[in-house]
Amino acid sequence: MRTGFILEDLPESQAWLGQALTQSFPGIAVTTAYSLQEARASLADAPPPDLALIDLGLPDGSGVEMIEY
Asked: Can you give the pTM of this predicted structure?
């Protein structure tokens, strides 16, 4: 099964991106986070997702940090 990850702090944008992923990749399992801290905790014990959509401007730092993670 394909997996996707969305890191986006705006709920409306996160919902739209989630819909875009599920429509584009039927059957994809999508995990979401609103902050870098939440994203790190969510991905700590999971295999890396097949696809990640990362917001670069987050309230608790830069999404670039998550990409490097």
From this structure: 0.92
